[in-house]
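Convert to structure. Protein one:
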Amino acid sequence: MSGGYGGSTKRLAFLAADTPQARELRQKLVAAYGDVPLIKADIAVCLGGDGFLLEAMHRVLSHNIPVYGMNCGSVGFLMNPAHEDDLRDRLARAQPTRLHPLRMVAWDTRGTAHEALAFNDVFLFRQTRQAAKIRIEIDGRERMEELVCDGVIVATPAGSTAYNLSAHGPIVPLTANLLPLTPISAFRPRRWRGALLPSTAIVEFFLLEAGKRPAAAVADFTEVRHVHRVMVREDKSLSTTVLFDPDHGLSERIIAEQFIG
């Protein structure tokens, strides 16, 4: 095969979200460049929004192929512009960004363990009108005896511009080797803004009064209800490569996002 990501012999698999715009673009691209099943592809081209790209990143994890996103959604922070011209040339010039997922293990109140991966974030959130009460341990050491809140987020650097940012958490550069830990509507301690943790940290949440104050744990699009303990860590043994146009690199976007009013 030729060099770069988009040589003429590269086999492409086109994945489209279930929207008219994405389906129409997929038809045009398949007609122009062909299409193979994901298992036979060298590159997965994802047509949709950021959420659909996250799903695609999970799908390609076992295939060890890069993903190139084309924005057919709304925000499209992780996507490239959507047009069908010169796709192979764009792929050949694309800049790779390697992303590691968070691994979540959540134990529900019946003692069942649930495991899931997250390229964006893992968060806990209250299930009822009552605030959750959460004890936080980092690497086996208690750091907060009781956080009373709507929830709490552990984000990857790539995910730090998503829910984490909406909850007033910090944006983290991809090369920082840090994980932001951010409370959601903290009631006590009211002024706690969260923490920046080393990417090697093992974060554990213990739900206090789990029966009275139930909470759910979410890893990207996997939700576990009625949890009483949740462990989160970055899994360096796994990664997915996401491709970006030279003028739309993810590192640059993360920096630029910090200067938007």
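Protein two, convert as well:
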Amino acid sequence: MSVAPSPTRVVPRRSGLGFTVSVSVAMLLGALAMGFVLLASDAPGAIVVGAVLAALPVGPVLGCFLWLDRYEPEPRTLLLLGLGWGAFVATSSALVLQLVGEFAFRAPQSFSGAVVAPVTEEAAKGLFILLLLFFRRNELDGVLDGIVYAGMVGVGFAFVENILYLSSAYVGEQGQLGGIGSAVGLFVVRGIFSPFAHPLFTTFTGIGVGLAVVSRRPAVRVLAPIGGYLLAVAAHATWNASAFMGGGRGFVLTYLFVMVPAFALLAGFAIWARRREARMLTDSLADCARRGFLDPAEVPWLVRLPARRAARRYARQAGGPDALGVMREYQQTAVELGFLHSRYLRGTAPRDATARGQAYVDQLIRLRPHLVWPRATGPSGAVGPAAGGLA
């Protein structure tokens, strides 16, 4: 007997619909504003060239952040909202704020680029992660989630900003000749040598928000996001200011001795956080198994990514699409349970942890009779959950 898979997220999220609608409306308004800016340039050919070149690094950079997100994949809707926020809301609001700042301060371009742009752009990008913290907090389980969402916002922002810069380079401004050569030359700098720049900056804010989620100290919950934002502004300001210092030499030195090491450190930190997340999930699900919520023999099939894929392949071969759907849903529900239970063990569980945890356990019970495990080394039998909740 097979059952059709049902939605994995078995506990309704309060404010979920309102959050999605509100962000979507903001994205629509931002898209209209950016569309007006692009159309006002009256250079459709340049916009096409800029959009094509700007799109080239998007896939590889997105792939890196999605690779980090494989243990507990975030809702695709929220990831797309993050991309859209960065592409339309953050770009349009940052543009307005920079115009206001330039008018108010009447400062030179160097001040705008090194001070006004970092402050406004990182605030506009980081606001999405703060909104997640306040309205969709249950989707944030720690630092790695903060990095992933920050990456989505940064990629969206960089894409639209690159369209603006590359199309301007194609048209030719400030004494530049323009043409495809100028656009490609700028693309080499922005799209090949520094495609991670905006995601890198905003990642500091994401780390700060992630630390706030996992900490039990009120001071950390307040100061970590602020500190992350300030680091994002500092990194962004350093990068922008290098373009005005010592000509091209200052830019190259900053790239080699600041940006490259910073990116390497952050990449190493993200990989470490991913491995730590795997260990945490193993320990948490092992504790769930000791409490009777699942069979201990299932844990490797739920945590190890190659084992997950192997279990899904076997389920599809043995039981078809329905069995694959059940296996996929069972694995994801168990992972959600593991992350929630880990927060309970750390003393940072959300207020609705008991209700959510019991809902996950009930979902596992419903799915368990319909699972098709690999026979050679699969679980020997199902163990029903102990009476009571997660505590």
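The mean pLDDT is 88. The two ends are 33 Å apart (CA to CA).
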